[in-house]
């Protein structure tokens, strides 16, 4: 899409740093430079307000990425792009079949109504829960990683969705302040929400998370 749009050397493309490297790599292959914007802490998608702060005379496009089943605020981005003559090139996640989405939403509702040891995701009508991503309370990455190790030790699958933001990777290192991106990388954990999970598995997940959450205290 970037090449078809004529983006190349001398251009800048605003992309999220929270995610994998594929978007930044695609930008550099055209000869353009990726510019990293911060995310909305509730949706993990690129923050239109920070995008606006990144725009300059070299900016040619912005690439919003729909994350974990949340949709980026494309309407605000298109309004911003219209004022500055920019392209908006959406990058989405593979959609799940409708019946799987319904089951994931049901499981997510169950978890969100019962989990107290973690901060549950902000649900909305369009959320498809491609991943059920929570925030682990406490002191950031050390407590999140310890939390994950204990769950795995009890046979509960979980994963860190973004271990290192792109702007902290050697190939794309930038001296830029992206506090929400870095906080999310330190605190987030994807818990299982597969439609095939039984009620007993969900109950066990809740019990283990709630027991662990009570042991974690924020740093002062």
Could you please describe the fold and organization of this structure?
With 220 residues, this protein is of the alpha/beta class. It has 2 domains: 12-88, no CATH class; 98-213, Aspartate Aminotransferase, domain 1, CATH 3.90.1150. It has helices at 22-29, 48-54, 74-84, 98-114, 141-153, 179-187, 199-213; strands at residues 12-16, 33-37, 59-62, 87-88, 132-135, 188-191. It has a 4-stranded parallel sheet, sandwiched between helices. Strands 5-6 form a two-stranded antiparallel sheet. The longest helix is centred in the middle third of the chain and has 17 residues, at 98-114. The chain is elongated. The mean pLDDT is 93.
Concise summary:
36% of the residues lie in helices and 11% in strands. With 220 residues, the chain is of the alpha/beta class. The protein folds into two domains: 12-88, no CATH class; 98-213, Aspartate Aminotransferase, domain 1 (Alpha-Beta Complex).
Q: Order of strands across the biggest sheet? A: 2-1-3-4
Question: N-to-C SSE series?
Answer: EHEHEHEHEHHEH
- How does the overall form come out from the CA principal axes? elongated
User: C-alpha Rg, in Å?
Assistant: 19 Å
Under CATH, the topology of the largest domain can be stated as Aspartate Aminotransferase, domain 1
């Amino acid at each position: 899409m970037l090449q078809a749009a004529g983006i190349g050397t001398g251009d800048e493309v605003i992309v999220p740093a929270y995610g994998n490297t594929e978007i930044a790599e695609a930008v550099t292959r055209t000869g353009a430079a990726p510019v990293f914007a911060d995310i909305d802490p509730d949706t993990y998608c690129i923050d239109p307000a920070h995008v606006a702060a990144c725009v300059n005379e070299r900016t040619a496009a912005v690439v919003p990425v729909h994350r974990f089943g949340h949709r980026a605020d494309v309407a605000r981005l298109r309004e911003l792009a219209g004022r500055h003559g920019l392209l908006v090139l959406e990058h989405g996640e593979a959609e799940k079949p409708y019946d799987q989405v319904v089951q994931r939403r049901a499981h997510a509702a169950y978890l969100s109504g019962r989990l107290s040891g973690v901060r549950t995701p902000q649900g909305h009508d369009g959320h498809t829960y491609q991943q059920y991503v929570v925030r682990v309370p406490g002191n950031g990455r050390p407590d999140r990683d310890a939390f994950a190790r204990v769950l795995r030790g009890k046979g509960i699958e979980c994963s860190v969705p973004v271990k290192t933001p792109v702007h902290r990777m050697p190939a794309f290192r930038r001296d830029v302040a992206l506090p929400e991106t870095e906080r999310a990388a330190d605190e987030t954990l994807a818990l299982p929400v597969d439609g095939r999970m039984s009620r007993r598995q969900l109950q066990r997940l809740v019990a283990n998370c709630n027991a662990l959450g009570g042991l974690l205290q924020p740093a002062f």
